[in-house]
Write a structure and sequence with these properties.
The chain is an alpha+beta fold. The protein is 35% helix and 27% strand. The protein binds one RNA strand through helix 1, strand 11, strand 14, helix 10 and helix 11.
RNA sequence: CGGGAUGUAGCGCAGCUUGGCAGCGCGCCACGUUCGGGACGUGGAGGCCCCGGGUUCAAAUCCCGGCAUCCCGACCA
């Protein structure tokens, strides 16, 4: 069904993520066109949960969902110089339509700043229309040189937010709010993936932005993954698309815009942050199925006990599922759910029912315990929160253990072999340090102020650079 | 575009050096015995050996020419 590379972009890093794990976990396959992907039902269920959680946070931040076209006239891209330069190499361009060559080619959107800018200009008249907070769920295409399933596919699904504001301060504050309250909150609280929030260096910045902020996560092999970004676009796009408003004193003003997005890349991040040799480990708040009740045998009233248990779990708000496939061997079914990373398995058989107990297995710790049948549902519900916290704590510990403070470029390269290095940005910025790191495949993941906040600029004193190898 | 490798059953691969019936593991189908952690036995289905040409009595195998894919680099959510 799928190749091993699906879940293990670097097979040697996760040696036992074999064909079996991939095929049965049913996550994704390589698509029919180079670099595209087919997302299979279980992988899509994970994405749907991500969408639901991210969308709720976006709405809490005040943005409204809308939709814009997949096709963008090529000329739109030429209105913002840096943007066209940044995206031209990876555009998919449609030259024919309806059997005829088009007068003007259209590109398949790699991101929608340009079309949305066009519409914002039409919609915004007055300062009373601001801020304008829009979000689009859709797909985009970037013809990458080296695609990698989930992490860098030619087509991917994502959410892109686009906002217009009256002032620089308002735009900057909103972009930062998205980073904290939508992205980092979701990643830490739901995905149980610890992230470093920082500022990108100018060379890593989004084409056309004046500032790019990022959430960087560490995968289990020590490499970094950019999980989501939020950009201040300044007035670059407002100028290019004439997004203006009349202020309270009757003066025409240019808007300040932002854009921000997270994608199906997060599915890859989830896998590579939490997956182990036995398959996926899905944190409870994300898990499409939080508890699976496995009916071992239908004898001795176990069938009705299992059904009742599922009802009790659902009554407590737990996403529960019954596995009553008694014609399939128990071991096989256990492994199936283990591969899928379902946080808790409750095993119910005649033996348990006779003793008034069930066996509870935790996927995260691999442990098993016996709990009384009457309190099994509430115990499982309580444990879900424990597991959520434990997974975050474990991931945080592993990341911190692989993060070293260093003083020299040599030490940074050494530390980056299996983790991150942290060192003063000043030392790199004022020397050829960054170039020497890049020669060794090590990049500046992000910049963070000494107190952990986001630096207002690259040349601020005491800024710390996070360095590492990245996917 | 530079460097390296690979195309053989649904998936993973052996066979190629030294030409001679198309193979193995997993998966799939049937029957039986099993069933509390990936069961076992017996039988079965499944092939454009990447494509085109050449050499030969005979080509998965040798030769020539294409195409595709993967890995390492440059680009990147």
């Amino acid at each position: 069904m799928a190749k091993p590379s699906v879940l293990t972009p670097q097979a040697e890093d996760f040696p036992r993520w074999n064909q079996d794990v991939v095929a049965k976990a049913e996550l994704a396959d390589n698509g029919p066109v180079r670099g595209t992907m087919v997302i299979l039902p279980y992988g899509y269920a994970l994405w749907e949960r991500m969408q639901a959680e991210v969308d709720a946070r976006i709405k809490r931040a005040g943005a409204k969902n809308c939709y814009f076209p997949l096709f963008i006239p090529e000329s739109y891209f030429h209105r913002e110089a840096e943007h066209v330069e940044g995206f031209s190499p990876e555009l998919a361009v449609v030259t024919h339509g309806g059997g005829k060559e088009l007068e003007e080619p259209v590109v398949v959107r790699p991101t929608s700043e340009t079309v949305i800018g066009e519409y914002m200009a039409k919609w915004i008249q007055s300062y009373r229309d601001l801020p304008l907070l829009w979000n689009v769920w859709g797909n985009v295409v970037r013809w990458e040189l080296r695609p990698r399933l989930f992490l860098r596919t030619s087509e991917f699904l994502w959410q892109e937010g686009h906002t217009s504001h009256a002032t620089y301060e308002d735009a900057a504050a909103y972009a930062e709010r998205i980073l904290h309250e939508v992205y980092a909150d979701f990643m830490v609280e739901v995905l149980a993936v610890p992230v470093v929030k920082g500022r990108k260096t100018s060379r890593e910045r989004f084409p056309g932005a004046i500032n790019t902020m990022t959430c960087e996560a560490m995968m289990r092999d020590g490499k970094a993954l950019q999980m989501g970004t939020s950009h201040e676009l300044g007035q670059n796009f407002a100028r290019a698309f004439e997004i203006q408003y009349l202020d309270a004193s009757g003066q025409q003003q240019l808007c300040w815009t932002t854009s921000w997005g997270v994608s199906t890349r997060m599915v890859g991040g989830l896998i590579m942050c939490h997956g182990d040799d036995a398959g996926l480990r899905v944190p409870p708040r994300l898990a499409p199925t939080q508890v699976v009740v496995i009916l071992v045998k239908a004898d001795g009233g176990a069938g009705t006990a299992a059904e009742r248990l599922v009802d009790e779990l659902e009554a407590q708000g737990v996403r529960a599922e019954l596995d009553a496939r008694v014609d399939v061997s128990f071991g096989r079914r256990s492994v199936d759910w283990e591969l899928k990373g379902v946080p808790i398995r409750l095993e119910v058989g005649p033996r348990d029912v006779a003793e008034g107990v069930v066996t509870l297995a935790r996927r995260d710790a691999g442990s098993k315990q016996t709990v009384g049948l009457p309190e099994a549902a509430s115990e499982a519900a309580r444990l879900l929160e424990t597991i959520q916290a434990d997974m975050l704590a474990t991931a945080t510990q592993e990341r911190d253990a692989r993060t070293q403070e260093v003083k020299t470029v040599e030490e940074a390269i050494d530390a980056s072999s299996d983790g991150w290095a942290v060192m003063p940005w000043e030392a790199l910025r004022t020397s050829d340090g960054e170039a020497r790191l890049r020669d060794q495949g090590v990049t500046v993941r992000c910049l963070v102020a000494a107190d952990g906040s986001l630096p207002a600029g690259e040349d601020e004193p005491d800024v710390i650079a996070y360095l590492g190898r990245a996917y």
